[in-house]
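WARN retry 2 of 3 for item q-0093 after timeout on previous attempt; input resubmitted unchanged.
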Amino acid sequence: MDILLITPPIFASDTFLMANPLLLGVLQKNGLSARHLDLNFDFRQFVGSCLKISKPANFKKHPGPVYSKQLGLRILNDYLRSLPKASYYGISQTNPENSLFQQAEQFHPEVATYHSLLCNNFPKFIELLNDRIHNPFYFFYRRIKIIAAIRVYRTYAVGISLTSPSQFLSALTLAVLLRRYLPHCHIIFGGSYITGYRDEFAYQRTISKLWDNLVMGEGETPLVALLKCLKKTKSADFSGIPNLIYKQKGSFEPKFSNAVTWENIDKLPTPVYPAYSQGNPPALLYIQASRSCYWGKCRYCVHLNNAYPKYRIRNPRLVVEDIASLQKRHQLNSFYFTDTTVSPAMIKQLSDGIISRGLKVRLGCFCRLERGFSSRLLTQAFRAGFNSINFGLETVNPRLASLICKGYNNIEEIDRIIHDAHRAGIIPLVHAIFGLPTEREHETMQTYNFLKERINICQPIIEIFRLEKNTVFFNEHKKFGIEIIRSNDLELFNNSFRYRFSDPRAIGFRKALQIRSRFYREIAAGAGAKGQRLAQQAAELIKTGAVLSKVNFSFGSNKARVSRYILSSIKGDFIILSA
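OK item q-0093 returned
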């Protein structure tokens, strides 16, 4: 086999990421033999049975099945806390309030679980990486016999995809095992996380020993060219392969290819998703209609300088064919677009194609609140299967909308789109951000009241401002009065950073968090007895880090629907349960 593509945990445990299935289709189209292993389903099963691996006296048993990565990570967090070397993880055995999980939660509760398995400084992280006793992923990889599985495939290359820092420890642990037991295997890292942190992966000596190539940006053309070179000789010249970081023979110094390529996405095949057991199907499958963002100006957005800097669309006819093919192959009706944002024009063409083909599907996507979303278009989109659309509102305050370069602040037009979507039958999921740079409390309350007044026609998703690498706010943080707080080297690999604002009038993270909590409490209070009960249940679940992804409720009123939404999204890992 030419290459084995692996998606390591921890990311989505109820579906497959699209990157490797798409690469698999491209490789097969070019006559290369490849397979794909998505280990996230395996990890979910592993977490559910981790009590059988070790049963320390103070191991807290969580009731019921494991439905989400948060609950599973919290189980492992309890397990790690019980270990003799708990200090590896910044976890105090005597005072759980000092755990790394809770420290991270103070700054970014919606991404705290991404970092709950990382230790509190880089030297200890490297020590943990090689520690077979205290690194939980050694347990996992031994349980699934990953090295034996790779040997069976007889592959000379392994491609590891990193989309999130939540995969950081597991991916590097896998690379350590490959170096130890399969030293002749060629290790290739790729994915959006590699793209965003290419310098750190290239120049951090301990980590650079664990890879042979890094693929930046779009990986289809580079991977095909790289594998064809490797088939000829491992000492081939990689300098002409685009989007590639490589090492010359006998040297650990990274070399960056000068060539850059962007794919013609009309020529890409339909993703080849792995088979699954009939009793455990994925919740949905991902598809793609475009790459990058046609607006591309929002200052908080990481996509501006990451994997897809050039906006391109896929022919809508091909996208509809992708949907029809995947529906037939996998017997699934739910699909979600990975696009940064889908334009009104694309929604119209997709809706026309789906309706004309008679496909019965459920679709979701992200969109901007554009004037092009007429009442007629939204009705047509609902007929095609768009039962929910994530709209990026962020703020209704004109000054803040201009600050973040959102490109629209016509409140009447925004209100019209939300109402029209609701009347058409679409659930408008309206995203807002509290705690933007320089944001005053009265400006936050404008967005707060706007959403509260429309609670019966939309589902608000309120996030707290995150300072992410490769955003305008990060790159020009001094200009916007942002001070970045770095406490250790490991934070260089985080996708968001702790910060404080120099303007004392800005509400900051903690105050924004308090306002968001008050917003959800007020929603629950207005939802009657059932809403109060569900909110109380959600609060109890949040204490364990849980967000249920498979819960069935059947209520008729909009208020009850809002209460159900609180249960699924109040933690911040938004798993939407549609009406």
